[in-house]
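Postdoc handover notes: sequence design on the structure in folder B. Input tokens:
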């Protein structure tokens, strides 16, 4: 799963930071503490702080919300500056608080609430590319591919160097079956950020679907070199190796994925299929049992799939 990072971690904030011993008073104080609570896994506490940051951040902020010198009566800054390489965006604190609260709701699986929060952030800061990006990600998770693509289009329009937006738009194109567009987006993401492991992994999927197994393997190799703990890439490389008849290599990849994430159900199923092909029925059955224990598949459907693979 993609790691969700509160925006304040990559901002130049114009508000003073706060220690845990202090009592928050300003929007910036609550925002900082909300970030800390989110990082520590206290999602409810983070939401409470973001609620207060929004309340305080909206006080005194009107049509001039994006002015660098907007201040409350205490002199607290009401904006932050997002640094995107050489491009700076001035964002109202309230928009950042909505954005960060949207991230918490996204992490909690409250997708509709997250969409509302990202939308509020966009309303306050129409050129807030990160809000369009994350709203697009949530809409992708909801299966709303056209809406996701529209949001990611806007994120890219605002920030054309946004490599991760190309990756996620590629995912939406792929879900719609438009593999040429997906391939183009993954390749563009790689051009912009050659260290983006998931872009190689996802482009490898397109190569595999097209029957270009060697190109798929090359992309998966790069993905695991860049991120040695990317379980999806090991699993996918195992699938490509199995397709090429490289059974021992496929077993090694599935086993590596399982060693990193012992709850990766698909890797057990795939390793079981290879072991069936090797005639190792007992070992295969253990893998299938482990897959069933971890997955949400109904057992009759699971057993039907396995029996089909045995034929």
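Designed sequence:
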């Amino acid at each position: 799963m993609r790691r969700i990072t509160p925006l304040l971690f990559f901002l130049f904030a114009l508000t003073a930071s706060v220690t845990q011993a202090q009592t928050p008073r300003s929007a910036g104080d609550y925002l900082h503490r909300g970030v800390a609570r989110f990082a520590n896994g206290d999602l409810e506490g983070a939401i409470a702080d973001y609620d207060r940051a929004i309340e305080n951040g909206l006080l005194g902020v009107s049509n001039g919300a994006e002015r660098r010198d907007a201040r409350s009566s205490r002199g607290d800054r009401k904006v932050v500056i997002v640094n995107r390489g050489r491009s700076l965006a001035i964002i109202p604190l309230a928009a950042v608080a909505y954005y960060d609260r949207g991230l918490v709701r996204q992490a909690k699986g409250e997708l509709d609430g997250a969409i509302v929060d990202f939308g509020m952030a966009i309303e306050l800061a129409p050129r807030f590319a990160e809000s369009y990006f994350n709203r697009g990600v949530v809409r992708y998770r909801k299966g709303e591919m056209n809406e996701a693509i529209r949001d990611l289009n806007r994120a890219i329009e605002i920030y054309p160097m946004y490599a991760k937006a190309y990756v996620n738009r590629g995912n939406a194109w792929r879900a719609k079956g438009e593999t040429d567009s997906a391939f183009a987006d993954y390749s563009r993401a790689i051009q912009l950020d050659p260290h983006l492991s998931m872009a190689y992994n996802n482009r490898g999927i397109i190569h595999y679907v097209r029957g270009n197994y060697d190109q798929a393997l090359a992309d998966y190799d790069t993905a695991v070199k860049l991120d040695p703990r990317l379980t999806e890439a090991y699993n996918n490389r195992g699938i490509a190796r199995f397709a090429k008849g490289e059974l021992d290599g496929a077993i090694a990849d599935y086993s590596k994925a399982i060693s990193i994430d012992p709850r990766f159900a698909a890797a057990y199923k795939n390793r079981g299929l290879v072991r069936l092909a090797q005639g190792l029925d007992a070992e295969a059955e253990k893998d299938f049992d482990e897959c069933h224990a971890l997955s949400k598949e109904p057992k009759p459907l699971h057993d039907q799939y396995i029996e089909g693979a045995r034929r």
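Context for whoever picks this up: The longest strand covers residues 79-84. Don't rerun without checking with the PI first.
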